[in-house]
Amino acid sequence: MEMPDYEDLAEATRLELLLIEPEVRADPHRLTTLLHADFVEFGASGRRWDRAGIIAALSEEAGDDDSEIAPPVEIEELEARAIAPAAILVTYIAERSGRRTRRSSIWTWSGGGWSVLFHQGTVIPESFAEEPAEDGDGEPATVTP
Fold it and tell me: What CA–CA distance (Å, rounded) separates 80 from 107?
């Protein structure tokens, strides 16, 4: 496969946003199609998840009669970029109930469709919320397209 094009970036972004939707998260069959067989997630909690573990946890969460409907997720700074042939990095900030997390996913093309191979969520401490990122030398980091 060649480097992903605009349509591929748009599709990976669309699929990433689907994974936030409660009805998709509650559907093990749908998750199986979206999560790569070798899927790994490093959650905001620090826990490492594999495909089977995250599908089971999301199914259990959806089946919990005592759980309230999750509040909506607000998305900021959504970006997608081609990082290699057949690979797209999707990044964004998600906020739910005042908790902000920086999210990143790597989507790969295999078997005729896009699936997420890796996802990481990192909590953004309130003390960092308004401070610019640093590049390691104490200077604000810059990113050029």
Answer: 10
pTM, whole model, 2 decimals? Answer: 0.82
User: Cβ atoms within 10 A of the Cβ of 105, count?
Assistant: 23
For residue 91, the surrounding DSSP H or E stretch is strand 87-96
CA distances from 17 to 25, 96, 141 (A): 11, 14, 27
The answer to whether residue 29 sits within a structural domain is: yes
Single-letter code of the amino acid located at 139: E
135 within some domain: no
Residue 101 burial (CB < 10 Å; 0-12/13-18/19+)?
A: middle
**Mean pLDDT, each 10-residue run in order, the chain (145 residues):** 93 96 93 97 93 92 58 90 97 92 96 94 80 53 39
Q: How far apart are CA 53 and CA 60, in angstroms?
A: 11
- 50 in any annotated domain: yes
CA separation for the pair 61, 108 (Å, rounded): 27
